[in-house]
Amino acid sequence: MSATAATLKNKTSPKKVKKTSPKKTVSKKETRREFLYLAAAGMGGIGAISVAWPFIDSWNPAADTLALSSVDVNLEAVEVGQSITVTWRGKPVFIRRRTAEEIKEAESVELLDLRDPQPDSERVQKTEWLIMVGICTHLGCVPLGQKVTDPKGDYGGWFCPCHGSHYDTSGRIRKGPAPANLIVPEYEFTEDTMIRLG
Amino acid sequence: MTPLQKIYKMENFVNIPKKIFFSFFLIITMMITSTIFASTNAVKPPQNEWKHRSLFGTFDRAAAQRGFQVYKEVCSACHSLRLLSYRNLEALGFSPEESKAIASEYVIKDGPNDEGDMFKRSGLSSDRFVSPYANEQAGRAANNGAFPPDLSLITKARVYGEDYIHGILTGYSDPPEGMTLAPGMYWNKYFPGHQIAMPPMLLENGVEFADETEASIEQQAYDVSVFLSWAADPHLEKRMAMGLKTVLFLLVFSILMYFVKKKVWSDIK
Amino acid sequence: MSKKSVGLAKSNYKNPVIKWVDQRLPIFTMLDKEYGQFPTPKNFNYLWNFGPILVVTLLIMIITGVFLAMFYTSDIGYAFESVERIMRDVNYGWLIRYIHMNGASMFFIAVYLHMARGLYYGSYKQPRELLWMTGIIILLLMMATAFMGYVLPWGQMSFWGATVITNLFSSIPLFGETIVTWMWGGFSVNNATLNRFFALHYLLPFVIFAVVFLHVVALHITGSNNPTGIEIQDERDSVPFHPYYTAKDLFGILVFLLFFSIFIFYVPDYLGHPDNYTPANPLVTPAHIVPEWYFLPFYAILRAVTANISFFGVTLMDAKLGGVLLMFGSIFVLFILPWLDTSPIRSTKYRPLYKFFFLFLIIDLLTLGYVGGQPAEQPYILIGQIATAYYFSHFLVILPLLVKFEKTSPMPKSIHDAVTKNI
User: Fold this and answer.
1) Does C251 touch chain A (CB under 8 A)?
2) Mean model confidence pLDDT for chain C
3) Is C292 a known active-site residue?
4) Which residues in chain A are contacts of B263 at CB distance < 8 A?
5) CA gyration radius for chain B?
6) Is pLDDT at B169 greater than 50 in this prediction?
7) With a CB-CB cutoff of 8 Å, which residues 298-357 of chain C face chain A?
8) Is A12 strand, coil or helix?
């Protein structure tokens, strides 16, 4: 290795002098050596990645966390005009069985009036049941409006006391600093009155 | 020289005393570690054939499912399995719906609710197995002061593992001549000290297996031992499969690296 | 002399980025000097692989340990459960845990073989005394770390092993009981004890790392010993560390990992104790409390003292204190070894009489290990006492005397002489 450094520095040898040791032809022994080293390095690389993966994957949600990633909710006991809150993936989920008036109001809003335009039909699977993640899209507080005694804001839906965001009967942002409507999570009706969240 | 002859010429085989020293050291070390077991007053139970203890170990799933049935119908009355969740049963071949159905047979205490009260609900597959007793004291009170141990790790927590469990379950007999048992105790061949507080729980055809296998005491004992081996070590199959890949990889890599070393050193001496 | 090169290190690298870094923090030059070119004896055998193997094992233990700490809870209500959660629910948690658990055993196998090499070839002798002594400090730190680590799963052996060993300190005259209460943070091994052990168990490996750094620096000052015990005289005796020993060490490390993998994947609980899969119960003592295999010889020495030392009815030293002193004494005796064995011949290869005693020492250590795993009954007690007596007489009596009486074998003139004539 140090020999090459020496030859680099050597500027005095005239170009016309032919070098006695041919560099162009690589001996068979050398190609075998190169292959050996390459193979070893390759195996080392495979080994390193194989070892790294379990550690990286250990950070992914563990089996017990994943088991709680889906939650079944029985809606039988929820009456018209009643709201319940369930916990899903550590977050509150608002489930409201809307009254006919609330549904009518939600459907009759002009999309142009909305900061985050979304028709009510896009936010519900069954119009009676409004299901959304109860976290204000501004800075993450839990809006009020689930309890009968809670303030519901100017649009009859939910009101976030932290910075004064008002949500309507479809959970859409109408007034206040929040930029987006309350998020509708992934869910499906497994039966008439049973949903699976997530 | 052939590559094999070259390997035989490795430095550490030339110096004979060192070779003897190493093998001696290794053998004695293995002996030392195995004598730790000999120091208990355990009677060695007979060794059985376990599918999961072979080199390419897999759990006998049919046996494990039957074993779960034995646990459920016989053992769970007194023994908890608190480290397992109902969803774990899916690894034995139960479908998510089946494990959910099994879970829903049990009542879970949950809460507090919005009123501050604890309430009861039916089990979900994400719940842990329900324990028969609220705590150790309740367990002792119901069993003459003896606490039926949790079975989640029992095959790892006993020296002879599943052979021991199988031995205990099939090892009940009358005490030998002239031997009187302490009150409430039973004679067992493989339990340390021979007097065990647990009565013989397995009965001929005491369980009706779903797959219609004859439920002899021997069969039930074997199956529940397989189930408990799985319960203690659910990742055994993955571990051994990964082990095979790792050992083969390292074997090939070491051999390759040996030739690299030989190549690198070829210009020395 | 341009002002630009004032205060910069000399660097021979051509690449401008490398040269810029190297002039300010000469890592590249240092690595090239200490590992690229470092003249290393050409006659190392495979026992010299254990140094690098130990470094690799330390790194494996730190990495797996840090990852385990991400999932472990050190409160006694949750400790055992959190370990089982790692084993069952955390992705590859079982793998990380088994690597860490068996890694501790591998660490001690490697360190004992590394020390055996040092003892046999006289690597502790002048001028390598501090190299040896930093090594013994590393051993002590390893023992403390391993002891505390074993407590963390909070199994029966964790709890009772901790109870037995911490109780030993009560034998210290006058302050013993106070010290033990202070160590426990309570009146028995309890939650406070577990929490502080966790904190210290996390800390000590980094202290080990620092002492290992000193250990390697010390080695690079004196240079390595070799099987002949004769120092490098010229370049016919040595080869540059890279690529000769980088290649050889890599091979050795792979064989070691192969051995390690067999434990991790096939018999992961073989070196452990089943009782530790039962949660700790302060009201139920296991039938036989045994430490992990690597502590067995020390355990045997500890239990060897069965009688109090009395003088006319006055107890000067009770058996417990005697055992504790002998146990620590067994390591102290290693610490001062460079001054106990003053033979000018380093390597046992040329000391035929000492070779016999060395073999006796190995048999003695294995005997002590065996006795340590047995219950404290006869005949094991007597065997343990004889073995303990031999251990101390080996270092305190035999070694110093040997220097006076032994006849050494003829030695080669140099390393390359030994290599070419195969002596």
Assistant:
1) no
2) 95
3) yes
4) 33, 36
5) 26
6) yes
7) none
8) coil
Q: Is the pLDDT of residue B18 over 70?
A: no
Strands A129-133 and A156-160: unpaired
Hey, which chains touch C, using 3+ CB pairs under 8 Å?
A: A, B
Of C244, C274, C293, Cβ closest to residue B33? C293
Pair A42, A95 in one domain? no
Look at residue B36 and tell me whether its pLDDT is greater than 60: no
* Tokens (6 digits) for A21: 């040791």
Q: Say whether pLDDT at C3 is over 50.
A: yes
* Catalytic annotation present for C248: yes
ipTM reported for the complex, 2 dp: 0.92
**Same domain for A53 and A128:** no
Q: Are residues A88 and A40 in the same domain?
A: no
CATH code of the domain covering residue A149: 2.102.10.10
What residues of chain B lie within 8 A of the CB of A44, using their CB? 253
The helix (H) or strand (E) run that includes residue A143 is none
Based on the domain organization, do A161 and A188 belong to the same domain?
yes
Angstrom CA distances, C221 to A42, C215, C216, C217, C272, stand at 35, 10, 9, 6, 40
Helix (H) or strand (E) holding B35: helix B16-38
Residue A150: give the domain boundaries: 66-197
Q: What is the SS3 assignment for A132?
A: strand
Chain C hits for A58, Cβ within 8 Å: 67, 70-71, 90-93, 96
C283 CB within 8 Å of a chain B CB: no
Per the prediction, chain B carries an average pLDDT of: 88
Token couple for C45: 């055998």
| pLDDT of A6 | 43
DSSP state of C289: -
Those of residues 362-391 in C touching chain B at CB distance below 8 A are 362, 366, 369-370, 373-375
Are A90 and A45 found together in one domain?
A: no
| Chain A interface disruption, residue of C82, C91, C260, C261, most A CBs within 10 A | C91
Beta bridge partners of A196: A72, A188
Catalytic hit among A163, A188, A189, A191:
A163
Write the pLDDT tens digit of every residue in C150-180.
999 999 999 999 999 999 999 998 999 999 9
Contact C176, C169 (CB under 8 A): yes
Segment 59-118 of chain A within 8 Å of chain C by CB: 59-60, 62-65
| Interior angle at CA C112, CA C107 and CA C116, nearest 5 | 150
Q: Give the span between the Cα atoms of A88 and A82, in whole angstroms.
A: 19
Provide the chain C residues 69-88 that lie in CB contact (below 8 A) with chain B: 81, 84, 87-88
Question: A73-82, B39-48, B247-256, C229-238: which range is least confident on average?
Answer: B39-48
Query: Per the domain annotation, does A147 fall within a domain?
Result: yes
Same domain, A51 and A93: no
Q: Percentage of chain B with pLDDT > 70?
A: 84
> C41 - beta bridge partners?
C238
Residue spans of chain A under pLDDT 50: 1-14, 17-21
Question: Residue A58's closest chain C neighbor by CA?
Answer: C91
Residues of A in contact with C85 (CB under 8 A): 62, 64
The partner residues of B122 in beta bridges, in order of sequence, read B107
pLDDT at C142 over 70: yes
pLDDT at B8: 44
* Inter-chain touch C46–B243, beta carbons under 8 Å: no
Count B/C contacts: CB-CB distance under 8 Å.
124
Q: Which domains does chain C have, with CATH numbers?
A: 46-286 (1.20.810.10), 290-423 (no CATH)
Number of domains chain A contains = 2
pLDDT above 60: residue C1: no
On whether both A47 and A113 belong to a single domain, the answer is no
Residue in B85, B87, B257 closest to A40 by CB = B257
Chain segment B44-100, per-residue pLDDT in tens:
999 999 999 998 889 999 999 999 999 999 999 999 999 999 999 999 999 999 999
Catalytic residue among C224, C238, C330, C347: C224
By percentage, how much of chain B surpasses pLDDT 90?
78
C272 to chain B, minimum CA–CA distance in Å? 9
User: Do B248 and B242 meet the contact criterion of CB atoms below 8 Å apart?
Assistant: no
Each residue's pLDDT tens digit, A147-171 = 999 999 999 999 999 999 999 999 9
